[in-house]
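Entry 14. Two folds queued back to back today. First construct below, sequence then structure tokens.
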Amino acid sequence: MKGYYVPRKAGWDTHGLPVELEVEKKLGLDGKDQIEDYGLEPFIHECKESVWKYKGMWEQFSGQVGFWADMDDPYVTYHDDFIESEWWALKQIYDKGLLYKGFKIVPYCPRCGTPLSSHEVAQGYKQVKERSAIARFKVVGEDNKYILAWTTTPWTLPSNVALCVNPEEEYSEIKTKDGYTYIMAKALAEKVLGGEDAPTAPYEIIKTCKGTDLCGIEYEPLFSCAAEVAAKQHKKAHFVVADNYVTMEDGTGVVHIAPAFGEDDARVGRENDLPLVQLVDDKGNMTEETPFAGKFVKDADPEIIKDLDKRGLLFSAPKFEHDYPFCWRCDTPLIYYARESWFIKVTEVKDQMIENNKKINWIPQNIGTGRFGEWLNNIQDWAVSRNRYWGTPLNIWECPDCGERLSVGSREELFKLTGLEEAKTVELHRPFIDKFEIKCEKCGSMMKRVPEVIDCWFDSGAMPFAQHHYPFENKELFEQQYPAAFISEAVDQTRGWFYSLHAESTLLFGKPAYENVIVLGLVLDEDGNKMSKSKGNSVDPFEALDRFGADAIRWYFYINSAPWLPNRFHDKAVVECQRKFMGTLWNTYAFFVLYANIDEFDATKYSLEPEKLPVMDKWILSKLNSCVKSTDGFLNDYKITEAAKCLQDFVDDMSNWYVRRTRERFWASGMEQDKINAYMTLYTCLVTICKAAAPMIPFMTEEIYRNLVLSIAPDEPRSIHLLDYPVCDESLIDEELEKNMKEVLDIVVLGRAARNAVNIKNRQPIAKMYVKAEDTVSDFYTDIIADELNVKSVEFSDDVRGYTTYTFKPQLRTVGPKYGKQLQGIKDYLAGVDGNEAMDTLNAGGELKFDVAGTEVVLGKDDLLIEMTSKEGFVEQGDNKITVVLDTNLTPELIEEGYVRELISKIQTMRKEAGFEVMDLITVYEKDNETLAKYLSDNRDFVLKEVMATDIVTDSADGYTKEWDINGEHVTLGVKKN
């Protein structure tokens, strides 16, 4: 609608472990061994079939919510063209020396048998309560002397090879009540050993030293299996080392080191030439060498604690609560595990990624500088390989004899390297691609492809170029569309899609992948809890769409809160948002259609002539163009909620002020100019506001457009979405007019509040209204106020003190400390003052002075609670700028007029209930109330005109009848169509 061509290519992310898990479930398989027994080729075929299981549902869903995309020509991440583009990208990265194989501690899922990237780990944290262990490590050659070390992962203790202290901190030998001597951090001694009930208290510090002084002390291994593995590696183990990463925040200030199970442990191991003892297999089970063979690591924790306790090597096993990572796919606890893996060296381009991030307009900005920016500041190399099956094969061939490697960037290149014609058409998946071997130029042996596939997040980050099979074709098309002007996803994608796009774009093209990004908050339930099927608080989106319609749900998310904030979704909230905006817009449209059909009004036969318009028409057109200008500006700045509120405010003004104030113009007979003006003004407002709202509520605006426009102008574009977005006509904006009308509206709101305060209905006329405001308005506007509030006259005045006064009470917070003894006297004095005179004194001098029981009291405004109140027979309402006062004294004439208006209202209600058409003429009947019969007779002509009646018959009831209680007067009324 803004004149740009916006291609919307649908896409299907098809690779990855979730697909494999679903296929495993379908086939009754469990784990990698059973998959390989089943056969890799049929398993891959099942994966390919599985990904289309929900295709129809997603296509229906996308269409139903109005997210229109090209479903006939989507990109599919498992298609060979897509994978070939990824191969090109991986080769570019490899040739730059940024794709390497390393032996590294990786977050590892033992159930899935594959490492996870750091941004995948970030998606699966849960808060868990577990037992930790403070173990006693016996110092070699010393009786009853132990080093205390704490670990949150007892299952790593069988693989322990060293203990680590902080070189700069103080450590103590401490003799305790239980007869042991412990070595630990001095700063944590009281926390670990102290306390009235502790068996170690009281304790005595024998000597203190720096951490470096402990280095080299040898201790007996907790488990002999670790010592045996260390001996086979011919490396020294089980002694104290030092490193600055040890903190004094928790534990004992001594950290147990198992280099196979932690990044810091691995680094300390390398720096001190420690053996790598890994007594956990790739399924997460303790190995045969340990006393806990076959147990899953988390199940082994309590067994290890029991074993240590039995052997007198457990000091304590405190419970603790912490965040622990679980596999986001299968919900298995992750372990940090030493594995060979392929990494993309993103740390090499870290500075460039940070600079590129500064070029992106993040909405909100704090995600870019905070969550995403901090992530970039601390990025680790991307563990990109997966030891699985259904994914893009890693395009590295390796020689088994000499270790030579090469990266293949295309099927054509594979053909040239192998000489096999089928390389040009081979499916780029396992096991098909694994059949191709390449002769090693270095030693002449046959190179084989490495077995890994790649992280499916790499597929996601490759989408911008791989969807076009770049660089093999569509080069110009890709370059024309890159980088994306705008993307949007939920906040949990900060370390997922947002990151993979950014990393690959920086590595390959040296620039950001997107210019603007709206980060969406998560959808919560009514109570603010995360939705979950297991909790029973999730909402079925298809049911919600069927119940409310797409427009209502879309509008709820636009208007409810800023997109990046968490959003509480519940039925009542959707219905209320739907009522306030869509319901109001539809009712206004229905009002127009009702009378346009009666008058057979055709907007193509007339034109809007601004110079001929009355003030109300000029005002609403000014508001319309101001709204278009603001909405357009907000959307250009990605301020979605502000744009929605602007549209909602205009529709409210159009319906509840403009139409209500001008509806009688539509009832006039014939087609006089004033009626044409009203029709053309409302028609213009409806069509224009629908254009402005079309991107947000596409279905309702389309229906209104087709009925209002295409029914009389079939040659116009067949959809509202094919129109240009409306442009503000500055010549129609009158800021002074809008300002004056806003003041009128503010006065009316306060006037209604004043009526409600004394329970006087709006149909009851009031004699006088006084207004104190910064600006006065012309008679035109005062007439509107009088008509709207049903008052006989409106008077603007700088002083409404004749009808209002002020009451004063002491502010106890400030007066109490100063005049505690005189407090009751102060209250009594303030209750008796002339409110207006006291306010004058306060405004003039800034304080009130008076005497209480011989004590001079001085009170400033901060010492007083001041409230404006009404005098007898008047009611007042005000805000910071405006005060209105209504004269509530009612004469008999006013009371009679109030009853007449009530009678007219009841008769109009009965017309609708009886099913009469708008233009039907009727006869009115009254029975059983002489007072009301007299009021009808005395005001006969006025009533006949208002209710479109030809006669009023009293003391009789006919036609559609109904009993009413009108302000305590009981009566039976009847309406009958002539």
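Second construct, same run, same settings:
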Amino acid sequence: MGAIAPYSWAEVNALRARGVLRSRAVDVPYALRRGFFAALLWALPGACDGPSPATDAPAGDSLDGAPTDVPEDAPEVDGGGMDAPEVPSDAPAPSLLLCEARCARQERAACAGFTPDGCPARCVEAFAGVPARCVTERDALQRCEGSFAEYRCDPSGRPVTADCDAEEGALRRCAGAPDAGADAAGDALEDVATKDLPAEPAPDGGAPDGPEDVPGDVPGDLPGDLTEDAPMDAPTDAPVDAPMDASGPDGALDTALVEPAPDAPEDVAPEVEDRPRADRPPSDAPPTLVCPAPTAAFSLPGAAVLRDDETAGANDIPSTRCQPDAEGPEDAYALTVTVRTGLLIDTEGARTDFDTVLSLRALCDDPRAELACDDDGGRDRTSSLRTILDPGRYALLVDGFGGGSGRYALRVSSFTPAPNSGCAGALALAPGARLAAQDARNGGFRGAACRASGGGPLFYTVAVPAGSRVRVTATPLGPFAPVLAAADNCTRACTTESVGEREGAPSSLVLTNTGGSARTFVVSVASAGNAAGLLDLEATPAAPLARGSTCEGALALTAGAALGGQDVTLGLRSGEALCAREARGGQAFYALRIPPRQRAAVRVTPSAGLVVTARLLRSCAATACAAEATALPGSPVTLVYDNADTFALDVLVTVAAASATDRGTFEVLATLSAIPPGALCEAPIALTPTAPVRGNTTAGFRSGERACAPSSTGPQLFHAVRIPAGQRATVRATALAPPAWRPTLRAFTSCTATTCLQNATADGVGAPVSLALDNRGAAPQDVLVSLAGALVPSGGPYELTVAFGPSEPPPYVVTTIPMACDTLPASAAVAPVDGWDDDDATDTAALPFPFRLAGTVMSHYAVVSNGYLQLFPDGSPEADVRSGNLPIPNASPPNGFVAPFWDDLLAVDEETTFVYAALVGAAPSRRFVVEWRDWAVLGDLSIRLHFQAKLFEGGAVEFHYCSMTPTRDVVLGGSATVGLEDLAGGRGVELGYNRMGVVDPAMAFRLVPR
């Protein structure tokens, strides 16, 4: 069914003027929004197309079969102050008026033809009379009402939309329902009226007025409560014969937008007088509706419109779909399109001085009716739209991002769309054929092709024979970069795409058909930028698929046998793999079988002038790469992959050009060898105190899978150490040169562990790094230690040692207690001189009493924004501010800290985000309380953290979590360190390190010194 849309004031006034709507007391905006008139339409018999199944009207009574007089005993509608529809003898038939109103919001494609009585023919078909008993289906039908953006008609004019499939049954039941009788129609109408409209008396307290109540004396301010003294909602001098269909049969323009002057030439954009600005309303201005009065009205196709204006006033229109934060004041333009036209709309002029947002809509006040929108598609935060519109009237809105407003330069021009500007009109491009001077300026909707951001796409079909490939190349004849994209059909997203490397350079892609029958591709070509122009499009003759040109037809690699002269353009354009997406040239595919417990090394050497990227994948369906590397011209690169399984493993290797236009050859060579010791976690190198272990991490595989230190992604080797009961193992790694590199140590309990016992990274290149691992149990403990380069491809020779000594007990005994936050006065707020900023700290200040932290007496403190309190034995140091949390203990700064919640925290609101520090209680049981209130975590500003650290005179420490919302991993400690550490960074208590659930807002931690 067609859209049931709100009525404009012109339509309402026209209904009143013609006697169809008699009462002044109806809360019209309420009726408009609640669909009263739509329900009235469905209840009336004989709407649009003659007698309905519910009533048989005498022939000749009206243009379409609806009676012109209302019988005296017709059911009366109450509950809204409205009489049953009554039509004076000289007024058009109500069914005709209502049919016009129905069609007021329809897409022009659905209302292109008109019947002799003036009702759009296709709307008559779509809105065939519905029996009264189907009024009960109203709610279901209204869910289909939608807008231009969601509503479409099939070639016969019948409405169809995917969103309304579920309502199809209701629609069919109404279309074919038996006669329900005139009484039922009246009852249903009364039902709808009493349900949807509040009962109110007529303004004069008596019976509803008669036909003389026309728009001249209608009380206004209908958006609120209806009163006689309220201002008019429409000018008092509005003509009584104002056209009812103020919005036009296409449903393009909303209530407040006006039509161009009748005598304006079609090819000139007639401008109306500037509408009153919201900041200086005239005394006789009507009350503000949802849509503002139009700034100007113009018609296209025709002369280009250039206009300078300024937005001001309130934000009245819902945000756009492309930019939800379009909250600035808007200007609305009435746009009339007389024939199918392509439009270019932008605010790129030098006069534009704020961040604009453009929205083109079929209904001004409904974002669902948005046909196109743009935020920053133009230059320097300006907007640029490209679209194609059918004949009709539309609303063009100039809005501001983030509440912005100011001056803007609006430019609107038109172009004639190419016949293949839509996918349905795609031109055939035969293999071996060439289409010259294709005009990319006349393409379709921007963004319909992959990566297209400027010119709209033109569409073509290319039929590729079975087992063949065809290369399609777009060569621009001007300074712009073409975008080629291919899909299986008009409804599928693009599967491959290629962008010109630079303006003026060609773009090409290969269409490959691996099937046993011909396959037709839909190819689109557009501009990658705002500029567009002419281009030549060419398809090479179909060529049989070469071995290695597809993943499924990968060429087999034999270990030790080099393949030279390999063509980089052999197969499909690359870039689909998640790794090395910047490599977008053609690629070749190879298959390699790796025996169990063997290492495969695949070396790729490109020819001079060619840059290639090699990728290793587990299968054709893989969405990530197991390894990847890029080789410069003439320099080889090697991919390494270890098969740790006990059975043979098949892998794929692809070699791709870095650029879509690069040409050249390369050599590929695969070798197999035994996996080196320590390369597999399952086969670690034994580490004992009797002798150091020497090796080279480059023999290992890439690291980074561990939850601790995931940023350390260099190659790694695995080691195993057995720690005796009650002993501490100190593992120390020293990077040897050359080359100079920074080592990372990780300790974990098993190869499947998702967290680490400890980890540490050397402070600098060539510096050593160590871990202190305690076994406080009664039995020996086996621990795995990996040594890795901090970054790819860093790594190199190393020496690793382990020494054992007595295990030291933790310096504190930890218990949990109920949460009990102290209330601190506002006067206790502390902050840096310039207020809290990201990664900030207060100046060092004296503690209210000496405090012993892990054996060291501290006299001063500083509060760090990132959720920890640093303590000092004197007042000279400054706080070490670090956003990235570390495990405890760790020699890296900061040291000597108390951390209730160490994470990368952000101050979100200067009105609510604070840190307080205050002394509570009386000696000798005083406590120094530091509170972080209303802090967020980097990456999620919706979080609110409120927690406290308490330092007691006797040396105890407590962590209380007053309010931690919302409940999610990061709030519960998933990326935080909770605990304390001594001044040297060698001892401490780690309650949690990146461990979700360590924080429980209902509980607190109490740490008492031993």
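Quick look at the second one. The two ends are 79 Å apart (CA to CA). Residues 1-289 have pLDDT under 50 and may be disordered.
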